[in-house]
Design brief:
Number of domains: 1
CATH topology: Hypothetical upf0131 protein ytfp
CATH class: Alpha Beta
Radius of gyration: 16 Å
GO molecular function: acyltransferase activity; gamma-glutamylaminecyclotransferase activity
Protein name: Gamma-glutamylcyclotransferase family protein
Shape: globular
Family: Belongs to the gamma-glutamylcyclotransferase family.
Number of strands: 7
Low-confidence stretches: 1-12
Number of helices: 5
Distance between the termini: 35 Å
InterPro entries: AIG2-like_dom, GGACT, GGCT-like, GGCT-like_sf
CATH architecture: Roll
Mean pLDDT: 90
Strand order of the largest sheet: 1-5-2-6-7
CATH superfamily: Gamma-glutamyl cyclotransferase-like
Largest sheet: 5 strands, mixed, barrel
Strand content: 25-35%
Keywords: Acyltransferase, Transferase
């Protein structure tokens, strides 16, 4: 569900989707290189720092990967701070690939956000939520305690995809994580 805005680039006007990023796609984190590429190619524009209107669980899963869970107003959840981008259809395709939407890793769904410094809620925004097939187990595994922001402290110990064990796919890694008793 996108809203029509204009991206100022070498192309003609394009319908874009507003994407709320809360984890490794943000500035200063490991996957932001993709957002930088999209900005350079004219496929994304940063709107600024925003936060969710409702409380959501933001947790760290295996390898300190951040997951926003589509469990609005769950006890122990927070209004989550992140960045809002307008992304072209081509850019959205690249983000969907990174987030594994066609593999059941994450799902892109609507979310309401507002500017961090106040202002009206923005509608027509989407975010990448941890897939519903494991969201409740991930929330239980977190001790039903979420974060308001994925910052340096929360990212400490993050392992890049290329450095993770290659004998399990990401869903298998999630399954091992949620079924274990020890912290990862």
């Amino acid at each position: 569900m996108g809203i029509e805005i204009q991206i100022n680039c070498n192309r003609t006007s394009t319908t874009t989707t507003l994407i709320f990023t809360y984890g490794t796609l943000k500035r200063g984190f490991s996957n932001h290189v993709l957002m930088q590429d999209l900005i350079k190619s004219g496929d994304a524009v940063l709107y600024g720092v925003y936060r969710t209107v409702e409380n959501y669980p933001l947790v760290c899963g295996p390898y300190r990967v951040p997951f926003l869970l589509n469990l609005p107003d769950a006890t122990g959840s927070h209004r989550v701070t992140g960045e809002l981008y307008a992304v072209s259809a081509q850019g959205l395709s690249r983000l969907d690939e990174l987030e594994g939407t066609n593999r059941g890793h994450y799902e892109r769904l609507p979310i309401k956000v507002e500017p961090i410094n106040g202002g009206d809620a923005v509608y027509g925004v989407e975010a990448y939520y941890g897939h519903r097939s494991y969201a409740m187990e991930m929330w239980k595994r977190s001790g039903k305690r979420g974060y308001g922001v994925y910052g340096e402290k929360e990212a400490k110990g993050y392992v890049k995809r290329k450095d993770r064990p290659q004998n399990l796919n990401f869903l298998e890694q999630i399954n091992v994580f949620v079924s274990s008793c020890s912290d990862n």
